[in-house]
Amino acid sequence: MTCKCGHVDDSVKQEDLQAAIEKFKAVKGGLIPLLQEAQDIYGYLPKEVMQQISSGLSIPFSKTFGVVTFYAQFHLKPRGRNIIRMCQGTACHVRGASRVFDAVSEDLGVGINGTTGDLRFTLETVACLGACGLAPAMMVNDDTHGRLTPEKSVVTLKQYE
How far is the C-alpha of 52 from the C-alpha of 23, rounded, in Å? Predict the structure, then answer.
């Protein structure tokens, strides 16, 4: 059940997880797609969820944990609704990416891979966004923002609040 604020009831998440486990139980190589589906349900992979998956697939928890920690797509902590990816590539670096990162970090009150207390933002760095002509650049979710200054980057984030 979903409340007015958009949060899904834990019992619904649990039902969805059990349905996903049943769907992938007999599928060879089903661990990764099951983990992806579980992360879609919960937003990250809590230990209890990984334990249920291990039990449901009859595999050791260490294998599940090993897969989750190997692949960067999986997350062990809650993430923000808006994912900020700050480019640290050469072009962005030369054009002041560190100052832009510092401004965003200070404004949000989080460091690299940090998530704001209200779960609105997660701040990450990436090696390259492939937007060198827009340096310095950042992505917020699927939106690319370029030619940033420290001030412009902070103002840009206001549209995601």
Answer: 14
